[in-house]
């Protein structure tokens, strides 16, 4: 090649190499990352609290003897249902039958004596008219007649008492319900006022469920009600659901009865009582359950999906939102409780905020992003030097 041609080619090659070097140092800027966002809105939500509780019988009665004697027979099966007034035990009644017969005989004697004293008083009154007896004798005859009548009343009361004691030899069920084990058998001696009950009956048609609620939660709820944030009007405000020990939900809802008026100083909690129908006897006294108490309805709650809420290094709840100019903003949140897969946010988010729920690892506060609907975000690798969290 001629010398002159080489001289023209060298400057052109140098210029091309210079342009190539400049392009390697300044590549085109990458597009803003895409994130999936959910636009928050205010909506009513029913607030419920899950608390531990115990089942107790609506009615409990200890069967005790009203008279002393030997048990002759038991008339019920242990663990069965009994009706009010049903005979449970028979106590030997021969002594009480004899006592009734004696009382009836004494009554008959008193009734005979009253007839004689009345006739005598009438005769003395006739004799007094002809001065045949003194006034003192007439007064004594009247007093004897009154005493005889009073004796008859006393003998009638004795007969009634003897009849009641005889009836008490048949020990009856004071309430309807399921009866437990019997502590006595035929041949046992029972006594009036003994310490041990013969058996215990528990009314099972309806039962109580007593749950304990922290006093702080109760105060927070009352403040929210006073502020108008939570409504306790309507039938929903008194509903209670039960979770049984096997994890299943009891098919019948209960009704909130009342809250205790004092706080337990040892636990700082308040007892809340609810009643539940128990037609098939599923709920047994002493059973441990978990109760879901409907506290009320928050009229304008902000629900944030849990995948959009994380925690910072201090353990505070935080979230990323797409703010003005499509730039990422970090918010510190105050949450009340979880409902399903969402948090009830009481501070830090407001209706209309665009909460980032997808692509959190690819963005940081202050960065510009492209907001799209969830599950439509393109998967991209995190840029070099970007933080992997909040």
UniProtKB/TrEMBL annotation:
InterPro entries: MdtA-like_b-barrel, MdtA-like_BSH, MdtA-like_C, MdtA-like_HH, RND_pump_MFP
GO molecular function: transmembrane transporter activity
Pfam families (UniProt xref): Beta-barrel_RND, BSH_RND, HH_MFP_RND, RND-MFP_C
Domain Multidrug resistance protein MdtA-like C-terminal permuted SH3, residue spans: 301-360
Cellular compartment(s): Cell envelope
Presence of the UniProt keyword Membrane in the record: no
Domain Multidrug resistance protein MdtA-like alpha-helical hairpin intervals: 100-169
Annotated signal sequence range: 1-20
Name of the protein: Efflux RND transporter periplasmic adaptor subunit
Top-level taxonomy: Bacteria, Pseudomonadati, Pseudomonadota, Alphaproteobacteria, Sphingomonadales
């Amino acid at each position: 090649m001629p010398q002159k041609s080489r001289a023209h080619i060298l400057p052109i090659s140098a210029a091309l190499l210079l342009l190539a070097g400049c392009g390697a140092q300044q590549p085109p800027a990458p597009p803003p990352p895409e994130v999936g966002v959910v636009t928050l809105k205010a909506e009513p939500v029913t607030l419920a609290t899950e608390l531990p509780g115990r089942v107790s019988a609506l009615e409990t009665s200890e069967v005790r003897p009203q008279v002393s004697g030997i048990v002759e027979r038991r008339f019920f099966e242990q663990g069965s249902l009994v009706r009010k007034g049903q005979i449970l035990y028979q106590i030997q009644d021969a002594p009480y039958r004899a006592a009734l017969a004696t009382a009836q005989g004494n009554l008959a004697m008193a009734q005979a004596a009253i007839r004689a004293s009345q006739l005598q008083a009438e005769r003395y009154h006739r004799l007094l008219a002809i001065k045949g007896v003194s006034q003192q004798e007439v007064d004594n005859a009247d007093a004897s007649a009154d005493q005889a009548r009073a004796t008859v009343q006393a003998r009638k009361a004795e007969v009634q008492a003897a009849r009641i004691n005889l009836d008490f030899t048949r020990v009856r069920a004071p309430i309807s319900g399921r009866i437990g084990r019997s502590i006595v058998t035929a041949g046992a001696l029972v006594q009036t006022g003994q310490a041990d009950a013969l058996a215990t009956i528990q009314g099972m048609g309806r039962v109580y469920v007593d749950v304990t609620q922290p006093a702080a939660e109760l105060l927070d709820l009352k403040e929210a009600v006073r502020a108008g944030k939570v409504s306790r009007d309507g039938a929903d405000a008194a509903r209670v659901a039960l979770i049984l020990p096997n994890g299943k939900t009891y098919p019948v809802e209960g009704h909130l009865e009342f809250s205790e008026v004092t706080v337990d100083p040892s636990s700082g909690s308040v007892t809340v009582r609810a009643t539940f129908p128990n037609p098939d006897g599923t709920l047994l006294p002493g059973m441990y359950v978990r109760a879901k108490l409907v506290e009320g309805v928050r009229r304008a709650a902000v629900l944030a999906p849990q995948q959009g809420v994380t925690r910072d290094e201090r353990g505070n709840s935080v979230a990323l939102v797409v703010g003005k100019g499509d730039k990422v903003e970090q918010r510190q949140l105050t949450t009340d409780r979880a409902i399903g897969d969402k948090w009830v946010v009481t501070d830090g988010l407001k209706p209309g905020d665009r909460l980032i729920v997808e692509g959190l690892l690819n963005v940081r506060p202050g960065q510009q992003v492209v907001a799209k609907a969830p599950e439509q975000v393109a998967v991209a690798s995190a840029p070099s030097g970007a933080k992997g969290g909040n």
